[in-house]
Design brief:
The protein is of the alpha+beta class. The protein has 5 helices and 5 strands. It has a 5-stranded mixed beta sheet with strand order 1-2-3-4-5. It is globular. Bound molecules: acetyl coenzyme *A.
């Protein structure tokens, strides 16, 4: 089965990740903004106050730098007998660490968490250029994404 390279570790996001490069790695995905340690802590506290809903994972390298990040949001629904849906969000692997299967490992772990939480499916929105990557994570194309951007 799949495993992380030597020296790499997977664990939940912690406040200390502010100084371990969490935001820098997240910037691989999109603009993050100038977030202070205080703002970072507030968001982490909010996520940690709802541990059944927000599951944020990081992969660190042997220097304890955060080199990959990703999240699962577990949505409680009314349909299908009060079922749950997992949403995979904000996956990013630091550019110099891409191609080592870190993204694959991280997404698989998030999918496992969704299963453990009894989600009946796990979904995400992505750019078409990431389709092959997510197929390798065991997912397949379904539906169409729509938005209104504010
Ligand atoms: N096109 C085709 N195949 C790809 C691509 C790609 N763009 N990216 C990865 N793969 C393949 C790899 O070749 C590998 O295939 P193999 O198992 O046959 O060798 C497999 O997918 C797994 O690749 P990983 O090494 O795990 O990928 P990586 O760790 O580099 O992470 C990721 C992929 C997350 C897309 C990374 O490139 C990244 O951070 N990109 C920028 C941010 C981004 O687009 N994030 C996803 C946004 S969508 C969302 O968050 C829901």
């Amino acid at each position: 089965d799949h495993h992380l390279p030597q020296g790499y570790n997977l664990r939940p996001l912690e406040k200390e990740d502010y100084v371990k490069g969490y935001l820098h790695t997240l910037q691989t995905l999109t603009s993050v903004g100038d977030i202070s340690q205080f703002q970072f802590n507030e968001v982490v506290d909010y996520w940690k106050s709802q541990p059944k809903t927000y599951k944020n994972l990081v992969i660190t390298n042997s220097e304890s730098e955060v080199v990959a990040v990703g999240s699962l949001i577990v949505e409680t629904k009314m349909i299908h007998g009060c079922s749950k849906v997992g949403h995979i969000e904000d996956i990013a692997v630091r550019p110099d660490q891409q191609g080592k299967k870190l993204g694959l490992y991280l997404v698989r772990e998030l999918v496992k968490l969704a299963k453990e939480e009894d989600c009946y499916k796990v979904i995400l929105d992505c750019d078409p250029r990431n389709e092959v990557f997510y197929e390798k994570c065991g997912m397949h194309r379904a539906g169409l994404e729509m938005e209104i951007r504010f």
